[in-house]
Every structure is written in structure tokens, then in C-alpha cells.
């Protein structure tokens, strides 16, 4: 196995399981840990993984994106805490956008049921969860449904959003970095998210710590456009402080 083939195998493992461990890779591949570290550094340099202590996480890109089903199995306790903290930022908002993805779906589930709310969403899963909720009116954006994420995209969704002024948007992303802002692999998804940013008075980003420092294909927002970033304690306090210097409050749930 040459170096290129080995790195391709490492990347496939990271994408299949979400993350890889240096020690396990070294044992499985029959090479030294230092060789694996060099491979991971090369993959990180190409924007395909993000290094962590002892391993790496796969970065979603133009050629790779996880499905909603996969996301429901990863970092679930952290996503639940993030969702609860994000829902507490609702304030006096009466119209809310909830993005596609599992963490936004958990945020929708945590929204109060004792007051009238109008929820706009591109997520079929979120719309289904809220459809029978008392006091909640659900508006599902039209458009093409993406099979992997069960979310609507394309000009119909963007056109509907252009007609709204939304009090608060809960926005997700595949990657967030101080250099490149918020990114997603799919141009059609990026268009929807960019229109949400234009339509919303307030914007909150929610996502697990593995998304930080990662950049995908399509950029749709700057960090400074958000009033708050809600993540988990896996994001180091020093790094959270660096993001807060760009404008948003950073909450580590």
C-alpha cells in the first residue's frame, strides 16, 4: 500500500465512522503512529479532515456529506444540551426559522408549547415533529427534497423565504471557521441559508465542537452576523473567546 492509497483508506474510515484514532489506524495499517500523523496532517492540509488530540474528524465537503440518519447517532448528548441552550434564546420571538439537520430538529422539539409560534423550516423531519403541536403553526418551504437530509432546496424555497421577515433564525452549518465563516457543501443549500440570513432579524448558530475550524465548499455567512453561537464544552474556552471577539456571544452548553 503506497502513501496515497493509505491516505485514501484513512479518509474513507473517517467518513464512515465520523472520526479516526491514530493508535487504531497505526495498528490496522501496520505503520507507525508518526506515519499516521503525517497522513492526517496532509489530509487536514487539503481540508478533508480536522485534527484533534489523538486523531481526526472528517470534514464535510463538496464530495462528501453525512446523512440525517447518521447525524442522529453522533454526539447526541452534546446536541441535546446545545438544543436546550439554544431554545432558551427564543426571547419574545413570534416567528422562527429552524434549519435542516439533527441539532435544529432538537431545538424545534425544545421550543415552548404554551405560547403561539410560527415556525418556518426546510426540514421535513422538523415539520412532521411540530405539525400536531398546540400553539405552533408550521410553514414548510417548498422545493426539491434532498434524500440524505430530508430538506427542501432550490428556487422555490428561496422565493418563499424572500417574502418573510423572521424574528429569529436557528441556523446550522457543516463547518464554521473564523477565516471562512459558515459553510456547507451544497450550493442549493447555501442559497437557502443565505436567504435565511437576509430574512432574519436575529440569528443563532448551533453546532457541535467538531464543526469548528472546518470549511466546506459554499460560504453563506460571516461569524459576525450572529448574535450567538451555541456549542458544547468540547470547544476550548480559548477558542470560544476568539470567536466571541468577532461579535457573537459564545455559549458552551
TrEMBL record:
GO terms for molecular function: DNA binding. Keywords: DNA-binding, Repressor, Transcription, Transcription regulation. The keyword Cytoplasm does not apply. It comes from the Bacteria. SUPFAM superfamilies: NagB/RpiA/CoA transferase-like, Winged helix' DNA-binding domain. PROSITE patterns: HTH_DEOR_2 (PS51000). Residues 3-58 form the HTH deoR-type domain. Pfam families: DeoRC, HTH_DeoR. InterPro entries: Carb_Metab_HTH_regulators (IPR050313), DeoR-like_C (IPR014036), DeoR_HTH (IPR001034), NagB/RpiA_transferase-like (IPR037171), WH-like_DNA-bd_sf (IPR036388), WH_DNA-bd_sf (IPR036390). The keyword Transcription applies. Repressor of the lactose catabolism operon. Galactose-6-phosphate is the inducer. PANTHER family: GLYCEROL-3-PHOSPHATE REGULON REPRESSOR, HTH-TYPE TRANSCRIPTIONAL REGULATOR SRLR-RELATED. This is Lactose phosphotransferase system repressor. It comes from Streptomyces coeruleofuscus.
Amino acid at each position: 500500500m503506497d502513501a496515497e492509497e493509505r491516505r485514501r483508506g484513512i479518509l474513507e474510515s473517517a467518513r464512515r465512522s465520523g472520526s479516526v484514532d491514530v493508535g487504531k489506524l497505526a495498528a490496522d495499517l501496520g505503520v507507525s503512529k508518526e506515519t499516521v500523523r503525517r497522513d492526517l496532517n496532509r489530509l487536514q492540509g487539503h481540508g478533508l479532515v480536522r485534527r484533534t488530540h489523538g486523531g481526526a474528524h472528517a470534514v464535510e465537503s463538496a464530495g462528501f456529506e453525512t446523512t440525517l440518519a447518521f447525524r442522529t447517532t453522533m454526539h447526541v448528548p452534546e446536541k441535546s444540551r446545545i438544543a436546550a441552550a439554544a431554545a432558551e434564546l427564543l426571547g419574545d420571538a413570534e416567528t422562527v426559522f429552524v434549519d435542516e439537520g439533527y441539532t435544529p430538529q432538537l431545538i424545534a422539539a425544545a421550543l415552548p408549547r404554551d405560547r403561539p409560534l410560527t415556525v418556518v423550516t426546510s426540514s421535513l423531519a422538523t415539520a412532521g415533529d411540530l405539525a400536531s403541536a398546540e400553539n405552533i403553526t408550521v410553514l414548510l418551504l417548498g422545493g426539491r427534497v434532498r434524500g440524505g437530509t430530508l430538506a427542501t432546496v432550490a428556487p422555490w424555497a428561496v422565493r418563499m423565504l424572500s417574502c418573510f421577515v423572521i424574528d429569529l433564525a436557528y441556523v446550522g452549518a457543516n463547518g464554521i471557521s473564523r477565516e471562512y465563516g459558515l459553510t456547507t457543501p451544497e450550493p442549493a443549500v447555501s442559497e437557502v441559508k443565505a436567504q435565511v440570513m437576509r430574512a432574519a432579524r436575529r440569528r443563532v448558530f448551533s453546532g457541535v465542537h467538531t464543526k469548528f475550524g472546518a470549511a466546506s465548499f459554499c460560504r453563506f455567512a460571516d461569524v459576525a452576523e450572529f448574535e450567538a453561537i451555541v456549542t458544547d464544552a468540547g470547544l476550548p474556552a480559548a477558542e470560544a473567546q476568539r470567536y466571541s471577539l468577532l461579535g457573537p456571544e459564545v455559549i458552551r452548553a
